Structures are given as structure tokens and as C-alpha cells.
Design the sequence.
């Protein structure tokens, strides 16, 4: 067992929890957007996943097997597009419905500040859930690299391959996941502002654009992770996140000018 690997797991998980909370706190102090909007974003993400995740689990394997005769690469591409579209539709339409109906019922103003906080909560809770998975991987790493642990591992080639991969992990294999979580939070804030703009301006084309943008990011991540490896995948997500940050700044100014007029 490498103590540095364990420490990296722990630090990454801790930051994936602390950073979203710190971001929410900063938004509260800087812009006055209340914590309840952050919590509403988090709960909305969970509510969407209650339907979205089981649907993915039930349909992705049959779809992959159905298109596998087209070739492995084609099957991965079809699956990536399918998963991307599902994520885009569920999450962006979910955001839209919350803005349209729940914000009004809770008497929450449709302001850019609340859109920012809502996106931080939405992306933040996803980061926290991933942190729990990171901690689970840390425990698994400790177990399989401890003396005598192999006595409890089934003699199955697939399981053995997973164990060997876990035993060979290094800190550099763990850190990109933290960067991805931070970039994903930026994207969730961008999409939250775009869908908010769709509601505020009455332009459903912005909702469609948010769905397609989200689908493109997820599809690219799934496809590239299977075909090009981790570094290429993270580089592409970085480009999407940079575009998302630019959009946040642009939409922030546009909404501010509209509120001032």
C-alpha cells in the first residue's frame, strides 16, 4: 500500500466536498443569494437522478449489444450520444421546470445571482456524491493492497484484472478526477444561467441549446474516455469548461444590464 495514494484519495475527496460548499458560501456573501437556493439546486439534481440513473442502468447494456454488430467503435459512439442526450434532456429540462414552477412557488426571484447559486448547488452535490465514490475507491485500495487481502477476492479473471488495476494506481491517476469535478461545476453554472435565460427571456431555443451543449459534453467524455484515454478526455472537457466560463461572464453582464434598464 502506498500512503501517498491513500493521501491523494483523501485530499481529492475532501476538496470535492469543500470546494462546492466554499463556492456557495462565497455566493451568499458576495451576491446575497440564499443557501436555500443552493440546497434547492442540490435536491433538484438528486430528484432528476432518481429517474435518470435507473433508466441509464436499464437501457445502456441492451442498446450497446443491439448496435455492437456495427463495430465496437460505432457502438461506443452510439452509446455515447445516447447517454449524452439522456443527461442533457433530464438535467436541463429539470432545471427549466424548477425555474418555471418551483421558484415561483417558493417566491424565489429569477435573478442571475440565484441562477449562479442554483448551478453551484446542482454541480456541487454531484461533486459531493463523486467524493463518496472516491472514498469508496480509497477503501477498496487499502483492502486489496493490505497483507492477506487477496484471500477474500474471488478467483475470477475480471475481478483479478480490476484488483490489479487498483493496485497499480498512482496519485497522478487520481488527481484528474478532481480537476474534472471543478470543470463540471463551471459547466453546471453555465447551463443553469442559460436555462434561466430561457425562462427570463421567454426563449426556449436557449433551453434546446443547453440540452445540446450538455449532451455534447457528456457524449464526448464517454466516447473519448473509451477511445483516447484520460488526458485527451480531460483536455476536451477543459475546452468546454473554458467556453462555459466565458458564457457565464457574458450572460452575467447581459442579465445585469437587463435588470438595470
Sequence:
Amino acid at each position: 500500500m502506498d500512503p501517498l495514494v491513500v493521501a491523494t484519495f483523501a485530499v481529492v475527496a475532501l476538496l470535492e466536498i469543500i470546494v462546492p460548499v466554499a463556492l456557495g458560501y462565497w455566493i451568499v456573501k458576495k451576491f446575497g443569494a440564499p443557501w436555500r437556493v443552493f440546497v434547492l439546486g442540490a435536491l433538484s439534481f438528486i430528484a432528476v437522478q432518481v429517474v435518470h440513473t435507473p433508466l441509464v442502468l436499464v437501457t445502456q447494456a441492451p442498446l450497446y449489444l443491439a448496435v455492437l454488430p456495427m463495430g465496437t467503435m460505432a457502438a461506443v459512439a452510439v452509446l455515447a450520444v445516447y447517454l449524452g442526450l439522456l443527461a442533457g434532456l433530464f438535467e436541463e429540462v429539470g432545471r427549466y421546470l424548477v425555474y418555471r414552477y418551483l421558484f415561483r412557488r417558493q417566491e424565489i426571484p429569477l435573478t442571475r445571482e440565484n441562477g449562479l447559486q442554483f448551478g453551484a448547488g446542482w454541480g456541487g452535490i454531484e461533486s459531493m456524491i463523486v467524493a463518496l465514490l472516491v472514498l469508496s475507491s480509497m477503501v477498496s485500495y487499502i483492502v486489496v493492497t493490505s497483507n492477506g487481502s487477496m484471500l477474500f477476492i474471488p478467483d475470477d479473471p475480471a475481478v483479478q484484472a480490476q484488483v490489479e488495476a487498483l493496485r497499480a494506481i498512482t496519485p497522478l491517476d487520481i488527481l484528474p478526477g478532481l480537476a474534472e469535478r471543478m470543470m463540471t461545476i463551471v459547466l453546471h453554472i453555465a447551463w443553469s444561467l442559460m436555462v434561466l435565460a430561457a425562462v427570463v427571456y421567454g426563449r426556449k431555443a436557449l433551453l434546446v441549446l443547453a440540452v445540446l451543449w450538455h449532451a455534447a459534453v457528456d457524449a464526448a467524455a464517454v466516447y473519448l474516455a473509451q477511445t483516447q484515454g484520460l488526458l485527451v478526455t480531460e483536455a476536451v472537457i477543459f475546452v468546454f469548461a473554458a467556453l462555459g466560463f466565458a458564457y457565464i461572464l457574458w450572460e452575467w453582464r447581459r442579465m445585469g444590464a437587463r435588470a438595470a434598464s
In short: Residues 3-260 form one domain. The mean pLDDT is 91.
